[in-house]
Amino acid sequence: MKKTISIIVLVAVLIVGGYFISQKSSQSKPEPVVTTNPTQSTTTPSTQTPVQNATSTTIGKSVQGTSITAFHYGTGNTELLFVAGLHGGYGWNTSLEAYELMDYLTENPSAIPTNIKVTVIPVVNPDGLKKVTGETGRFAPSQVTKNQTTLVAGRFNANNVDINRNFDCQWQASGTWQKKAVSGGSAPFSEPESQAVKSYVESRDIKAAVVWFSSAGGVYSASCAGPVSAETANLTRIYADASGYPAYDAFEPYEVTGDMVNWFAKNNIPGISVLLTNHTDIEWAKNKAGIDAVLKYYAK
Fold first, then answer.
1. Which sequence spans correspond to the domains of the chain?
2. Are 94 and 84 in contact (CB under 8 A)?
3. Cα(202)–Cα(172) distance, integer angstroms
4. Which of 24, 125, 143, 208 has CB 3.0 to 4.6 Å from 88, enough for a Cys bridge?
5. pLDDT digits (tens, 9 = 90+) for 147-181
6. What phi and psi, each to the nearest 5 degrees, are found at residue 105?
7. pTM for the structure as a whole
8. What is 38-297's CATH number?
């Protein structure tokens, strides 16, 4: 009997001791740290700040009311603009390119020269992106539909306008895409998405612009009814030489009217169109080399 009682007491001691040990352990365990991805932030400054003064600006809204956001990295006075997602879901890999750049700048703040501010607009056409991915912002490649009809529809905004035919450089109401006629809108900047870019650019002193499209595999100089400027030619050469993409003075497969990058040139902003090789890959190693070369060039 005494042996049985001793065993019971021992078990009780072990249970009570284990309880207090577990309580002490749970009290000393630190709470998990939750960080907010800057691509999901609507506040300024961003809630994730490995980069000093990383901020975001809502520059406008889409036809369906989705915010179009510019993200800023660095604190310099020389602003370089990187843009993607003009063709929404059809060019979904260009937006992933921009998000990859944002991650790179977040993780490598020293990559930004002290005199530089990098601004990234990852999605100009969020309504078109949503048609293809179900999202208006960051998404996973697995979310992209494989339906070709939907992919093509994702190129246009909710008014069925090609945003990259809606800028004021040789604008036409009916533009061309490959062998197809596409809407350039009722007038230059008739669409809220192009208005958002216009308002932002005109309110800033943009030193140079890099815009991603897909697909052709090359770097194309911007110009508007005139010769390519010397600074645009320099920008084209620098990005092309570093990335390994071929360089071209102009896009010649078919006429492009109302083009955003050519509108930059019209406003004396050196600009290049970087066309990724296909519609699925971001070719980050190539583009990182081009980006780094551009940052280094303007670090003066």
1. 1-30, 38-297
2. yes
3. 22
4. 125
5. 999 999 999 999 999 999 999 999 999 999 999 99
6. -70, -35
7. 0.83
8. 3.40.630.10
